[in-house]
Amino acid sequence: MKTINMEQIERIQEMDLNELITQVNDAVWGYVLIFALVGCGLWFTIKTRFVQFRMVGEMLRLLTDSAVDTVESQVKNPQSAVQQKRISSFQAFAVSVATRVGTGNLAGVASAIAIGGPGAVFWMWLIALIGSATAFVESTLAQLFKQKHKDSFIGGPAYYIQRGLHQRWMAVLFAVLITCQFGLSNNSIQANTICGAMQTAFGWSPLWVGIVLAILGLFIVFGGIQRIAHVSAVLVPVMAIGYVILAIVVVVMNIEHLPHVFKVIVLNAFGIEQIAGGGLGAAIMTGVKRGLFSNEAGEGSAPNVAATASVTHPVKQGLIQALGVFTDTLLVCSCTAFIILISGLYEVPELNGIALTQSALESKVGSMGPIFIAIAIFLFAFSSIIGNYYYGEANIRFITSNTRVMTVYRICSAGVMVMFGALASFELVWNIVDFFMAFLTACNLIAIVLLGRYAFRLLDDYRQQKRQGIKEPTFHRSQIPELENEIDCWE
Predict the structure, then answer these.
(1) Distance between CA atoms of residues 51 and 389, nearest Å
(2) 108 contacts: CB under 8 Å, gap ≥ 6
(3) How far apart are CA 155 and CA 488, in angstroms?
(4) Is the distance from CB of 441 to CB of 300 less than 8 angstroms?
(5) What pLDDT, in 10s, does the model give residues 326-354?
(6) pTM for the complete prediction?
(7) Half-sphere exposure (CA, 13 Å, Cβ side) for 231?
């Protein structure tokens, strides 16, 4: 027994950091988190009576009407300094989509296909379809338990864990995990991908690109959530629409290959060859991991921004955030997957991440492909850096109000970790993110399963008001008497 233990110790000592984190990630993701994600998604889908499918029309209406709602609210109510600074429902949606639509859509999808094969795309679709119900629940809870802040509302899982479950230790644990995940490690991935794309397209040094990114990031994050919201509201539509248009053009130009693409995805997702070769597990694991990284449904990140919106009913922002999952995975991720699969370059072992996406696009549109991707990934990933920073800020404020701590965090988030990502390896930055993402998601899933009943009641109330002919349902905290003392807003 002593010999075995010594051999294990020597093996661990021989491992590098990247290999050790990889083994931990495989153990956590392979045996626990995938079943928890899918199980919770199915549970919320059933309990909400398929809200993500039945209320798509209402989601679109709420998103387009949010600016009008904000104006009407300002006309009806006396203007205070705080009300003038509250962000709209659309701006909250834009910030959350900014963090969703990023490297996960270009580099993450490519990595999933390279590792798990075309079948990974199917599992990304599946986790988005059922995960949108999870996104609805967590964002509705964030709205319910949000608190007033000097410039806007503030909230998220840390707040609904403390107010709803009365577990301060668990709330602080979540706040620490999300700060490490989004405010720090996630920003390293964004920087790593931008630098890789710029190096491939223009031959620029990752060091100098990282320095420029850090300077731009620090300038914006010291401006607060309003500047973040305004920048994201401009960048997100431009980057998403431009990329989707290009992908559609590529697909239309190669429309004869599309039936084969769907066939390859389905066959690889369930094929006998994959099961026999052990590839099915890799397809599922990479598809779910990259799907979660991209759309964040259940991870507990988007609720931090969802809580900042000024709406008349918590369900409104829950519906809008559920729409964000569809926008991210079913639209933008699918565009990347189709480009890669049509090119056939996913079978080249040397290509992975953003380089695979750039090479695939180059094979179809010429030398301008890598350049376009470099510009697009800059917009995608830079807006993600901005949104990721806010997730950490909101949760640090939950733990402490010390301004020095916030200043140090801002420098580390937009400066230090951006430079780390620019210089670190592709495999290392992704493994670190997977590590924190696993534990962060597990913590949030436990909370929303225990508190989900309140989201179900709010949804029933919203539907009832709509059936009564009320166009804009409203909510008052007295409607949930047992929580009236735990809810700060909704007077």
Answers:
(1) 30
(2) 290, 293, 294, 333
(3) 11
(4) yes
(5) 877 788 788 888 888 888 887 776 766 77
(6) 0.81
(7) 22
